[in-house]
């Protein structure tokens, strides 16, 4: 066997050529539709022509458009588009000049370690965006943030222990898990009369593992006995053994730890196995997802189902949130997931911080401004302001927590309890007597 | 100087130039191109190791990404426990090679596809362990790495390692060991019959490949400052394996071409979510159908053809015996 | 214990029906057909599509099975055929096909999980302390019926015998004058039909997504080796063994490492019985 020089030279040329020519230095100003780089695709702002006298402020978003988390990216992008249109209808003022905003969206392919980090470097070093919105991979971006600090706003991940611990540049626009999980245990005890519970949890999935810990803690506090914590590996497709283990102790309620796409198949097999008791979780399942994933029996499978999480767009008591939910549903023909309202608010939050910072490009000033801004006008999620009216408290902005119940007569969910959490215990709960009557 | 000496000299000079070009790219490229450049070079180091067992011996090892992960995790864990950078790096490589020995002891006796599946499942188990040993590896979230080398030193090491890996491959492929690996690929039964200890040779090749993979992993951890199981899944191992196939089994430069195709292209191509992956998939199929021997193999065939035509024109219709044998 | 065994048998049947398709293709062509999980996903979507357009379940299921067969043959005709004498080139093709198939499904139907409805999904039997859901019983029955049919075809028809001959030793088969090309296509057709069967049997217990079969495929590859390459009965036996081993391991040792128990079984069997459970050819070990 012989290695000819031709192959050698050609490979050399390929090696040099393929990664040479870094030609797409993008500015954060400029026309909205023009810049684009690498794996990033462009979301044009609604007003793509002029962009006010100040120009266009371009920010980044790294979302999971493909791969196993592709249920999250597309709705986030839809909602960001809507938020941009609303924001750009009037524009926002920075240092006396009017700006509009554009968002560069990159796909992390559900692989933050490889594609996400690549997109991050593109946005930070080449596109020079001042702010990035993202969903997964907080821990992976943290060391990169240490080298080039910039504010990153997470619009998804309430994993416990908090993602905010990874880096002081990370902000979270939703209540962290400890602000809603105790609601489930409290409700099970006080309203469902549960003395015992079992947990079925995915392993190798951080959100699920965090929820499981919180349920265990909360149960200890409330005096509810955990009969079993049954595990199955993430990616498993048959949960028979975990289900057996969980129902073996005849628990009064079962809590399912993990996200919608993971827990609904578990719920289905749990019901198929004959369990008829109450099921709780913190996944923000909506009726569309229930019907799509569970199939034609979804209404019977979802019976006696309780979801404790942050408020949802459709069940919210806030008129603005409700309007957003209706608009989203009308436009995209899908039920808005909880993360859509946070994604919608993202452009407003960034605009507010830029105005406060007096800069559309200075990352440090924008980070500082984010910590000081009050809840921006135009946001729809119903943020709970902190001391002094600030939006972020310890870099976490949150909406009220609630428990929704499945209404089988109407095949939908309704809010049954709204509450707050202090020191791991539920405070200020307000109940609806007949929640299903009003939906 | 004799002709072979000139040829070896030129080849090694070329290898040094590759390292220099690589270093230049590492220090000048920004953004996604910069990141892709790093990944391609690290994958080049790792798949050069794979090129021994898979390329020369024709044995499809799907565990290369696990060795890559082994180096990354072991060195990072040792650094975390306060060991010196050099000790941590060397032990990261050595302990991973011990892992290579273990996998080799079980599967080096098996043939062809059985070897592939054995290594595939070794890789699957490594992924499971990395994901589930939360107490040690911090699980899916990834593990922060203490940076023991300065960023600029890491870049230099990456560039030097690319050259060193390629040079080692060039030299080892020409030793008796390299010839024995080739003889296994040509005809394992015949090789065994002629007294080649095939299982032992395969084991050695696997262990050698694990060393290259582990070193690339050490560098990755130092460069990124964080490592996560998703970087070292059996899926990534399969990608490394495909990289050698696309580049050309046993060809010196196959790792570069293959790494560009499997890690570079999908990150840099931008046709929209999903469409990019479809295009990459089609490209893999087309390349394989057009040049089943890989791109370098295809280029060589083309080169040989051209040279022959050229010689025919200049020398008339004489074909040397040597030419016929290539 | 009874329930754990039943779950093991259920898992085993799933592994077996997927593995038989793989082992045939593996046997005739030495192709690690990773694209098989893409075929399973697209078969499930085809069934779903037909259901959504109002077809009764049986018709929709047949559409799914047919789609699996057609797609699988297409992968052979358009891609694998051209590298059949170069097994080293096949994995790149397999990966390429998998990317194309899965991402086509993603583009067409999105990444959200979807349910495949069946008439028997709410059925539930209790025998002693063991509960059996309709969908699991259906999977076991579908596996038994389809594999029994396959076994009959392979044993009783000349076409089947030829496929088996090629799967077990293609060089010898070629020397005996068996038209090898036709057997390749046939092997892919059978594999595709079985992919369709596994899709309609398995999707109702889980959900339809572009990535629904990835994990199962990995286990099915263990089964292929456990059973011995190219051996249909080996794949069936291997499937059951693996299903039960994984189920027992998950129930009594650790569920996080469920698939690792399959690996341990693989190592034990390869060391103790180098030819697999039922190996058709002895050339596996040097």
Structure class of chain C:
mainly alpha
Please tell me how large the radius of gyration of chain A is.
Answer: 23 Å
Shape of chain A: globular
| Strand elements of chain C, count | 2
Q: Strand sequence of the main sheet of chain C, in spatial order?
A: 1-2
The ordered H/E elements of chain C are HHHHEEHHHHHHH
Measure the end-to-end span of chain C. Answer: 40 Å
**What's the multimeric state?**
heterotrimer
Helix content of chain A: 25-40%
The unreliable regions of chain A are 1-42, 44-50
The number of helical runs of chain A is 13
The shape of chain C, in one word, is globular
Low-confidence stretches of chain C: 280-286
The helix tally of chain C amounts to 11
Question: Please, could you describe this protein's structure?
Answer:
The complex is a heterotrimer of chains A (439), B (326) and C (286). Chain A is an alpha/beta fold and 439 residues long. Chain A has helices spanning 5-19, 73-90, 112-126, 138-147, 181-190, 206-222, 240-248, 260-272, 287-294, 298-301, 319-332, 338-357, 363-372, and strands at residues 40-43, 55-63, 92-94, 97-107, 132-134, 152-154, 170-173, 196-203, 225-233, 253-257, 279-281, 305-310, 396-397, 401-407, 412-422, 425-431. Chain A contains 13 helices and 16 strands. In chain A, strands 1, 2, 3, 4, 5, 6, 7 and 13 form an eight-stranded mixed sheet that branches. Chain A has an eight-stranded mixed sheet with strand order 9-8-10-11-12-14-15-16, sandwiched between helices. Chain B has 326 residues and is mostly helical. Chain B has helices at residues 3-28, 31-56, 64-80, 85-107, 112-132, 134-137, 151-173, 176-186, 188-193, 198-224, 234-247, 254-268, 275-290, 294-315, 321-325, and strands at residues 143-144, 226-227. By secondary structure, chain C is mainly α. Chain C is built from eleven helices and two strands, in the order ααααββααααααα. A two-stranded antiparallel ribbon of chain C has the order 1-2. Chain C is globular and about 55 Å long. Chain C starts with a helix and ends in a 14-residue tail after the last helix. Chains in contact: A-B, A-C, B-C. The interface between A and B is large, with 60 and 68 residues.
